[in-house]
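Below is a filled-in request sheet from our internal design queue. Each sheet records the structural input a requester submitted and the sequence that came back. We keep these sheets so that new team members can see what a complete request looks like end to end.

REQUESTER: design group, bay 2
PRIORITY: normal
MODE: inverse folding
CHAIN LENGTH: 299
BACKBONE (tokenized):
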């Protein structure tokens, strides 16, 4: 029996088609096997494809799973945002509820609508509580692996592993120029990340000429992607790191604008809110999206 699977491409963290980070979204995945999900993700060949499965839980709307072209991953920020945008618009959830509750391998992810003049302007996902861990690594080695000079690393801030459910190696860099010219040794970077169970390597800088608060770039060869254009998970982890390392004040909420994807002609912007709940940081990552393509996969 042939399966006719509805599929969408959604460009996340942008309001323009061909910007931001494209994600595949399969809104009706309840009849797909794990192997079929992996085959679809490989066929779409995007950094991540999200699959929605109706949940029997009363406090969860959908189970969400994420696959790269080569493997399943526990969480993906841009695919979550793109999925929520699709459900709000194409599937009219914007008129059903004020939010959608997704459940991933790392827990529940509430996503709410951000309205302006009765129009959806962005969706905002609350990520799981951030954590930061030390890593014993030589700055010279870090520089060699990501393809910058050792002098480009900003020693004012520590190299750490940050996570909002998925671990990312966070590397402070002095200038945007250095980030843009980074040419990683993907083979060795993949080995390092696998050895330390790290999902991606995330370069960041405060040198943005006022265009953003932070500028970033993200490499992830160990999960089958050399570079992810605009990463909700890694930037959420970065915001948590900034709070937990006391780079951001704990006395007030923070609104961060982060630019990413410009180096590979997929520019996107993330809007991140950092607040405190009795000393524990709460990270909300928001942005617009655009449905760029729809079709069917015949299986």
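RETURNED SEQUENCE:
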């Amino acid at each position: 029996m042939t399966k006719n699977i509805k599929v969408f491409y959604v460009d996340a963290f942008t309001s323009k088609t061909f910007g931001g980070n494209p994600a595949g979204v399969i809104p009706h995945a309840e009849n797909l096997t794990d192997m079929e999900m992996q085959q679809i993700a490989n066929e779409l060949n995007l950094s991540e494809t999200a699959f929605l499965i109706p949940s029997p839980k009363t406090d969860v709307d959908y189970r969400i799973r994420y696959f790269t072209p080569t493997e399943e991953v526990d969480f993906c920020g841009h695919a979550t945002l793109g999925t929520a945008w699709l459900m709000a618009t194409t599937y009219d959830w914007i008129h059903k509820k004020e939010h959608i509750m997704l459940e991933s391998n790392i827990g529940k992810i509430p996503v709410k609508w951000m309205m302006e003049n009765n129009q959806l302007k962005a969706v905002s996902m609350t990520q799981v509580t951030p954590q930061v861990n030390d890593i014993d690594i030589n700055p010279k080695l870090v520089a060699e692996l990501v393809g910058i000079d050792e002098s480009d690393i900003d020693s004012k801030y520590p190299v750490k592993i940050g996570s909002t459910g998925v671990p990312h190696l966070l590397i402070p860099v002095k200038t945007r120029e250095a980030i843009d010219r980074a040419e990683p040794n993907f083979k060795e970077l993949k080995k390092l990340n696998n050895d330390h169970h790290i999902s991606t390597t995330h370069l960041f800088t405060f040198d943005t000429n006022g265009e953003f608060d932070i500028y970033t770039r993200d490499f992830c060869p160990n999960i089958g992607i050399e570079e992810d254009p605009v990463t909700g998970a890694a930037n959420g982890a970065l915001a948590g790191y900034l709070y937990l390392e006391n780079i951001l004040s704990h006395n007030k909420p923070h609104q961060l604008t982060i630019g990413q994807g410009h180096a590979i002609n997929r520019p996107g912007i993330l809007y991140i809110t950092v607040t405190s709940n009795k000393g524990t940081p709460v990270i909300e990552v928001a942005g617009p999206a655009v449905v760029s393509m729809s079709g069917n996969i015949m299986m």
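SHEET NOTES:
- The longest strand covers residues 107-116.
- The chain has a mean pLDDT of 96.
FILED BY: M.R.
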